[in-house]
Automatic annotation (TrEMBL):
This is NH(3)-dependent NAD(+) synthetase. Keywords: ATP-binding, Ligase, Magnesium, Metal-binding, NAD, Nucleotide-binding. Catalyzes the ATP-dependent amidation of deamido-NAD to form NAD. Uses ammonia as a nitrogen source. Pathway: Cofactor biosynthesis; NAD(+) biosynthesis; NAD(+) from deamido-NAD(+) (ammonia route): step 1/1. It catalyses: deamido-NAD(+) + NH4(+) + ATP = AMP + diphosphate + NAD(+) + H(+). Residues 24-264 form the NAD/GMP synthase domain.
């Protein structure tokens, strides 16, 4: 195994082999323990129709149901947060049905994002690039989730997992802005295995991963943007040998995105100097 590969696997806590049922139990227990330790009233999460939020959402709903069965009081709020008309709205609705959250919303982020465009234009700023505006959309979703959570004494879940962490493939303080990460350490195929164990429909666990943040390229596949396939990233994270050029690309992304996996840099931190 490559030297950096071994370090990454340890830092991200990836296990090369998992028992899906055991992982589901560990992660539901983590959610329940966190509620017990903090006294929070439950969780909020945006549901896109993609693999990660379907899994994290279902785990959250199962966790709060177990809390209530034991006499406690916790609820889960799931929110569809489309920007305008979502092309894969049918998948998002199927995910909402599968997650079966206690409280459900559909809140469109098109107007809040347009308000930023207008404020910039009013100040004489040129229009944002489609790419940067995509990150504004991700951050608008973060604000909406915190708005829902703040009024309820709830916590915001994040869907970051090892295959996104290693590549830094998330928006800093957007979908990366969350209170706890129930999918930490899992790679993409492990997320899929957990969803299958939970009896999710194939439409959801086999769905093509997409950030879907660009107006110009709706539903652009993550693999297309990354120039890497998830099987390559997953194999790398399981300690296998992959095409050296792909391994180098993963390692470049890992090193370049370290700032996203820490609290903001200070003068006395050492990590950013190397
Ligand atoms: N060395 C450094 N130390 C401290 N901060 C640093 C930094 N370099 C950049 N930054 C800051 O970070 C910012 C860039 O980071 P960021 O804003 O995240 O932007 P960036 O990483 O450029 O773009 C986000 C990427 O994540 C992908 N994404 C986003 C959301 C969801 C998903 C998905 O999988 O569904 C994927 C998206 O497609 C895109 O490729 C810079 O504007 C700067 O403020
Ligand atoms: N249209 C949307 N509606 C609600 N939440 C969204 C939407 N798009 C993204 N999100 C939130 O941002 C998170 C990050 O998006 P990401 O694409 O990484 O995950 P996903 O869509 O759940 O799964 P996949 O990576 O397989 O597409 C989602 O898990 C979800 O919580
Ligand atoms: Mg997605």
């Amino acid at each position: 195994m490559r030297e950096l590969q071994a370090k990454i696997i340890e830092e991200l806590g990836v296990r090369p082999e998992i028992d899906a049922a055991e992982e589901i139990r560990r992660r539901i227990d983590f959610l329940k323990d966190y509620l017990a330790a903090t006294g929070a009233k439950g969780f909020v999460l945006g549901i896109s129709g993609g693999i990660d939020s379907t899994l994290a959402g279902r785990l959250a709903q199962l966790a709060v149901e177990e809390v209530r069965e034991a006499g406690g009081n916790a609820r889960f709020v799931a929110a569809r947060l489309p920007h305008g008309k979502q092309r894969d709205a049918a998948d998002a609705q199927a995910a909402m049905d599968f997650v079966a959250a206690d409280e459900q919303f559909e809140i469109n982020i098109e107007k809040p994002v347009a308000a930023f465009d207008e404020a910039l234009a009013d100040a004489g700023h040129k229009a944002l690039s489609d790419f940067n505006r995509g990150n504004v959309k991700a951050r608008a979703r973060m604000i909406m989730q915190y708005a829902l959570a703040g009024d309820r004494g709830m916590l915001v879940l994040g869907t970051d997992h090892a295959a996104e962490s290693v590549t830094g493939f998330f928006t800093k303080f957007g979908d990366g802005g969350a209170d706890l990460l129930p999918l930490a350490g899992l790679n993409k195929r492990q997320n899929q295995a957990l969803l299958r164990e939970l009896r999710a429909p194939q439409q959801l666990w086999a769905k093509e991963p997409t950030a879907d943040l660009l107006d110009g390229q709706p539903l652009r596949a993550d693999e297309d943007e990354l120039g890497l396939t998830y099987p390559q990233i997953d194999d790398y994270l399981e300690g296998r040998e992959i095409d050296p050029a792909a391994a180098e690309a993963i390692e470049r992304r890992f090193t370049g995105s370290r700032h996203k996996r820490t609290v903001p840099a200070t003068y006395w931190d050492k990590w950013w100097r190397s």
